[in-house]
């Protein structure tokens, strides 16, 4: 869905300047590399994480970049993981990129694991995952 | 979600411009968008722009609370620009309060600017200036004779003897 955003490493600022975002700036959140959130994030838009989250992330789509760390649950409709997740991942579409490291169960409908990604834990398939429902 | 999010009024635009300019130097700004809600604390060495809801404390270099944003908690930073609603203390050398702001809490500052129309409820105090209660307490303590302080073993360290 947001796989064709362009180069992942491109900075969000430049992306915003370039326009053509699938999400308006109103629903586009960036957690910068020097930001640590101790608590939970809830969003209906897109969240780009370069920093550290100690808590649950629940968003429509999440992009966890290489420097990003989530210590807690990651719940989304679609998620691309380049960074590290210590906790369960629940999303309809999960993409684990080459640099990804996931320690925890990955509940998914569609799972895409790129070579090099490290996944420790179960990877149960589900017909549908509703991020608003707290099941599994 | 928020009534103001689509208006694109002056203050937030200017705030975005401000953070963008600092962003060039530091590399990136964290943006908490209008539909994002954070329940917990934020700690950042760089810049944060808040357009959504934060229920918790914010510690950062610069903090911009845009119009439509809501922060319930203390904000500690080098520079704070407020155009949204804040319920809690603000402590920063530079504080700017825009006309769309609603501040419910004390502001501790060195330089403070408040635009006409801003909603302010709370005390404004200069950084470094002693709180009225504190200064009263210290003046009372200084009045006490040193011998009375030293007679209580628990207070020896406090008495500095």
Describe it:
The complex is a heterodimer of chains A (136) and B (161). Helix content of chain A is 5%, strand content 46%. Chain A has 136 residues and is mainly β. The two termini of chain A are 25 Å apart. The model of chain A is unreliable at 1-21 (pLDDT under 50). By secondary structure, chain B is of the alpha/beta class. Chain B has 2 domains: 10-126; 130-161, no CATH class. In chain B, the strands form 2 sheets. In chain B, strands 16-13-10-7-4-2-5-8-11-14-17 form an 11-stranded parallel beta sheet, with no helix packed on it. In chain B, strands 1-3-6-9-12-15 form a 6-stranded parallel beta sheet, with helices on one face. The longest helix of chain B is centred in the first third of the chain and has 17 residues, at 10-26. Chain B starts with 9 loop residues before the first helix and ends with a helix. The model of chain B is unreliable at 1-26 and 148-161 (pLDDT under 50). Chain A binds chain B through residues 11-13, 25-45, 47, 50-51, 54-55, 59, and chain B through 1, 5-6, 20, 23, 27-48, 51-52, 56, 60.
Keywords:
heterodimer; A: about 140 residues; mainly beta; twelve-stranded parallel sheet; 12 strands; about 45% strand; B: about 160 residues; globular; disordered N terminus
Nutshell version of this structure?
Chain A is mainly beta.
Which consecutive residue ranges of chain B, at least 5 long each, have pLDDT under 50? 1-26, 148-161
Globally, the shape of chain A reads: globular
Count of separate DSSP helical elements of chain B = 4
Number of strands of chain A: 12
Q: Main interface pair?
A: A-B, 30 and 31 residues
Overall radius of gyration of chain A: 14 Å
Q: Determine the N-to-C terminus distance of chain B.
A: 61 Å
List SSEs of chain A in N-to-C order.
HEEEEEEEEEEEE
**Helix- and strand-based class of chain A?**
mainly beta
Helix content bin of chain A? under 10%
Question: What helical percentage do the residues of chain B reach?
Answer: 10-25%
Q: What structural class do the secondary elements of chain B suggest?
A: alpha/beta
Stretches of chain A where pLDDT is under 50 for at least 5 consecutive residues are: 1-21
Number of domains of chain B: 2
- SSE pattern of chain B: HEEEEEEEEEEEEEEEEEHHH
Assembly type: heterodimer
Strand content of chain A: over 45%
Q: List the domain count of chain A as a whole number.
A: 1
Number of strands of chain B: 17
How confident is the prediction overall: mean pLDDT of chain B? 77
Average pLDDT for all residues of chain A:
85
């Amino acid at each position: 869905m947001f796989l064709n955003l362009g180069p992942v490493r491109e900075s969000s600022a430049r992306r915003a300047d370039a326009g053509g975002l699938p999400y308006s700036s109103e629903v586009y959140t960036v957690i910068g590399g020097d930001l640590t959130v101790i608590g939970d994030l809830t969003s209906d838009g897109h969240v780009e994480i370069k920093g550290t989250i100690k808590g649950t992330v629940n968003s429509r789509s999440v992009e966890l970049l290489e420097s990003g760390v989530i210590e807690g649950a990651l719940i989304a409709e679609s998620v691309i993981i380049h960074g590290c997740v210590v906790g369960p991942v629940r999303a309809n579409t999960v993409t684990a990129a080459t640099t990804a490291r996931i320690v925890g169960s990955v509940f998914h409908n569609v799972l895409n694991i790129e070579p090099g990604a490290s996944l420790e834990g179960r990877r149960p398939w589900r017909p549908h995952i509703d991020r608003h429902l707290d099941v599994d | 979600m928020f009534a103001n999010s689509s208006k694109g009024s002056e203050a937030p635009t200017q705030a975005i411009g401000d953070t963008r300019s600092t962003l060039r130097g530091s590399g990136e700004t964290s943006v908490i968008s209008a539909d994002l809600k954070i329940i917990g604390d934020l700690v950042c060495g760089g810049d944060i722009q808040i357009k959504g809801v934060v229920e918790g404390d914010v510690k950062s270099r610069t903090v911009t609370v845009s119009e439509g944003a809501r922060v319930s908690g203390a904000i500690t930073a080098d520079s704070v620009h407020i155009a949204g609603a804040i319920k809690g203390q603000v402590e920063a050398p530079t504080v700017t309060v825009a006309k769309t702001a609603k501040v419910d809490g004390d502001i501790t500052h060195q330089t403070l600017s408040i635009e006409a129309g801003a909603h302010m409820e709370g005390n404004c105090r200069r950084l470094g200036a002693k709180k009225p209660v504190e200064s009263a307490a210290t003046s009372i303590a200084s009045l006490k004779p040193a011998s009375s302080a030293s007679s209580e073993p628990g207070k020896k360290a406090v008495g500095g003897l």
